[in-house]
Amino acid sequence: MTAILPASLATYFAAKNRHDTAAMLACFSAHATVRDERQEMTGLPALRAWIESTTARYAVQSEPLECHEEAGRSIVRARVSGSFPGSPAVLTYRFGLAADGRIDALEIG
Hints:
The protein is an alpha+beta fold. 29% of the residues lie in helices and 43% in strands. It contains 3 helices and 6 strands; from the N terminus they run ααββαββββ. The chain has a 6-stranded mixed β-sheet with strand order 2-1-6-5-4-3, with helices on one face. The radius of gyration is 13 Å and the shape is globular. The protein starts with 6 loop residues before the first helix and ends with a strand. The mean pLDDT is 96.
């Protein structure tokens, strides 16, 4: 099953699966914040480092399973596989989107 996603999130997951750092980064607003693995990163330079590090370390592939809106956020559950213990796993991505559709907040858990 593949979820129907807002355009910016579909672009994000497609770029993530291609391991295309530039295309993933283009999905974020300039001051976006990401929380992942008990760390918080803010701004494009920090997000670039996070993307490059996690891509190299885990070689993740993500299949969005469902998407819904909750408290102004787009919540995506995705089956994630890669080189990490417990792969594959279903993770929840909580996206906040800016007025222009870019991601301005992301929490992965």
